[in-house]
Amino acid sequence: MFSPQHAFLEYLSKNNMAATEQRRVVLEVFLGTDGHHSCEELYMQVCKQDPTISPATVYRTVKLLAESGIAESLDFGDGVTRFECRYNKQHHDHLVCVRCNMKIEVVEERIEDLQESLAQKHGFTLNRHKMILYGICARCRDA
């Protein structure tokens, strides 16, 4: 299986885009961060590696990462688009606390099976999906 770096280079080449050093830095920083990050948060990390890279370059590169299938955009309902690496990662869904904004990644096979069954019932073949459940975590509920 190809590395995410190789997949990104292939995507850029296929779309007649340059594989610049700045894009490589953004990719490496993105791959080196776990969790869900906004472009602004990634920019702050990228600046530590190369302060000459602009916020616009980070934003455009993250958009390319999403288009290439390496990153996935997520909206947790707070008005900020975040990204997480999806390359070679197990699918998971999210629980989000609406008070403290804590995010928990969850995998539940029964839900996955139900979603697949629902899609088949309506003649769909699933390629991907996102499920985000919003509520109040135990810590906030008990506070």
TrEMBL record:
Coiled-coil zones: none
Essential cofactor(s): Zn(2+); Mn(2+); Fe(2+)
Annotated signal peptide: none
One cellular component (GO) term of this entry: cytosol
InterPro entries: FUR, Fur_C, WH-like_DNA-bd_sf, WH_DNA-bd_sf
Swiss-Prot/TrEMBL keywords: Cytoplasm, DNA-binding, Iron, Metal-binding, Repressor, Transcription, Transcription regulation, Zinc
Domain of life: Bacteria
Manner of cofactor binding, per the entry note: Binds 1 zinc ion per subunit. Binds 1 Mn(2+) or Fe(2+) ion per subunit.
Major subcellular location class: cytoplasm
Residues annotated to bind Fe cation: 91, 93, 112, 129
Cellular compartments annotated: Cytoplasm
CDD domains listed in its UniProt record: Fur_like
Pfam family, one: FUR
BP GO terms, sorted: negative regulation of DNA-templated transcription; negative regulation of siderophore biosynthetic process
Assembly mode: Homodimer.
Similarity comment: family membership: Belongs to the Fur family.
Protein name listed in UniProt: Ferric uptake regulation protein
